[in-house]
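User: Can you help me understand a structure? I only have the sequence.
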Amino acid sequence: MDTEFLKKKWNQISSSEIVQGYKTIRVTVDCIADIYLGINKMGNHSLILSLPKNSGLHFKSVEREKISIEFFPSKNYLIMTLIDSDYTNLFDDLIVSLFNAIKDVHEVDEYSKVFIRTFYQWVLFFSPDYKDRLKKNTVKGVWGELFVLNELISNSDSYDINKVLAGWVGPYDQGHDFIYDDINIEVKTKSINKVSVRLSSEHQLEVDAGKKLNLTVVIVDDDVINGLSLKDLVQVLKKTVFEQLGDFTIVLKALLQKGITPNNIQDYDNYRFKPHAIYDYDCLREGFPKITTTNISSSISNVKYDLNLTNLSKYVILVREF
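Assistant: Let's start by predicting it. Here is the structure, written out as tokens:
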């Protein structure tokens, strides 16, 4: 199931009659739990979980500015309701994510817990948009990391997709942009006419004992016609994550660290980049030039420097051209 499927379902439900305060239609018979799409008298989209009698569920209703969840014990209905229609697309993403997590679950206690847990996982993203716009260089940096994440995901499988997603920690400012058990990756995105990349601290190429360290340089060109926006990359990533039954909230939480939300991401559509190539450099190879805490005085900190890539071809371990 995907969001296009849901849009067709919403269109079907619009022409039906209101019964007990809702127009409803079952999401799909492929789901063991009885889950319905609903539209109430106010026109709000809802997701309804019909529980068996004597399910034993006890739940206190929660209402936020944009979305709510409520339990009706007389009917044994657990209902999520979208209050703000501006978030319709995000609500559909929530439904797809929930469906992927719940469709094969037989136990009532388990799928009702998943329903509630999904609400709490997603409610964070149904919040007022950030007012401060990011600068172009920041947007380009996030764009490059997302592009690399898409590349990493395309080379993974459904068994470790959440692990790959969780390794993207660039927006959290944790030293490296990607952190995994056996390798750390620092990503730099540069324009095609630049010969260097900026390292913003002595920690960005710091080596962790027993782990590889790659500097991944994404080479792009500004292209408002044929280039990709942040939103474009997130849409591609979302499709892949849902297809592999991954947890898309991992991506949304990371973007939120930079003030990027599903509702304001289109504000950056004027920044579009066309990828030319990705170069991976082995930072552990002898002689690779870098400034780290281990090769400068402890009295020096907050180091910023430009790394010229012109003469670093011998450190290149992989090139992908587009």
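Now, to help you interpret it: The CA atoms of residues 130 and 226 lie 28 Å apart. The helical segments are 3-14, 88-102, 108-122, 136-154, 161-166, 230-243, 249-256. Let me know which part you'd like to focus on.
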